[in-house]
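User: My collaborator sent over this chain with a note saying "see what the structure looks like." That's all I know about it. Can you take a look?
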Amino acid sequence: MQDIPVTRDPFPHAVIDGWWDEFLLRRVLAEFPDPYDPAWLYYSNSQERKLEGPPAMWGQSTRELFALIGEQAKDLGAAFGIDGLTMETVGGGYHCIEPGGYLAVHTDFNRSPDTGHYRRLNFLIYLNDDWDDPGGHLELWSETERAADIAPELNRTVVFETSDHSWHGHPTPASRYRRSVAAYFFTEEPPPGYVEDHSTIWLADA
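Assistant: Without extra context I'll predict from the sequence alone. Here is the result:
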């Protein structure tokens, strides 16, 4: 059982180093497609510039890792106080940010387009050796200011609650490639105080 220490400020989240077998992560990194592979989903606008790799692009080791992530549902539920979690990868999978890429601070869509379940946790694993770039850090925000700054180091896992107030992003571009995998956990029932369905909300527009 993995110890998952949850911090409440600015919203419930956990940062855990060394959770995964490093050899497995390096095999996953070796399976990462070339950034010019046409199978990537490419997003480029004023709010984001990133590549997203869906399951059709995954290799065997990547599938093994996602199976292991899915097995953490019970422990994650206990740590965050959320019953009935199940993993989905819609919008997740491989994430690659090219040099100069960014993701503005935002909150995420809150219903699964595949199942209609309610999104409760984001789960990120970083795959970058010796991150010495001042850009590309994950930032967690309150409505008014940055509250946490997390470098995307190899074998660093970040889990955080998905809500209308879970503002996050990596708005400062880096000069190197930034690679990670992402999965999300959902419940059949809405969270307490659920108001309405919405897509991504950008902090600058809130």
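A starting point for your reply to your collaborator: The first strand starts at residue 13 and ends at 17.
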